[in-house]
Amino acid sequence: MRVSRQLRTPRCLDTVRPGAEPSTEPRIRTGDIVSHQGHVTSYLNISDARVEDSGVYRCDISNDVGAVWHSARLNVYGPPFIRPFPNISAISGQELVLNCPVGGYPIKSITWQKGT
């Protein structure tokens, strides 16, 4: 699930599943509130949260002089699951960071294994 909007203001997306299509679910909404002073608050509203909504959500903002982002993890109580990993290529001698896209809460342990 990727939730994004093309705005001049912030956009929020689910970084657990990069490249996913924008959400068309009516229970997931984004919007913006602009104060009288012109300050923008962008929000992501999930009605009837489900365990599969668990993940890291990130809000990216930019303008002509820079860009910043903020991310936070949403934990929804339920059975644990792992989203599928894409195939990954790496360059020998370079650092590689893999994130385990887990959901469910609480997670008691995560174990990494090679070749199983």
From TrEMBL:
The organism's place on the tree of life at top rank: Eukaryota
GO BP field: axon guidance; dendrite self-avoidance; homophilic cell adhesion via plasma membrane adhesion molecules
InterPro entries in UniProt: Ig-like_dom, Ig-like_dom_sf, Ig-like_fold, Ig_I-set
Gene3D superfamilies for the chain: Immunoglobulins (2.60.40.10)
Key words of the record: Immunoglobulin domain
Domain Ig-like: 79-116
A molecular function (GO) term: cell-cell adhesion mediator activity
GO CC term, one of those recorded: plasma membrane
Protein known as: Down syndrome cell adhesion molecule-like protein Dscam2
Organism whose genome encodes this protein: Caerostris extrusa
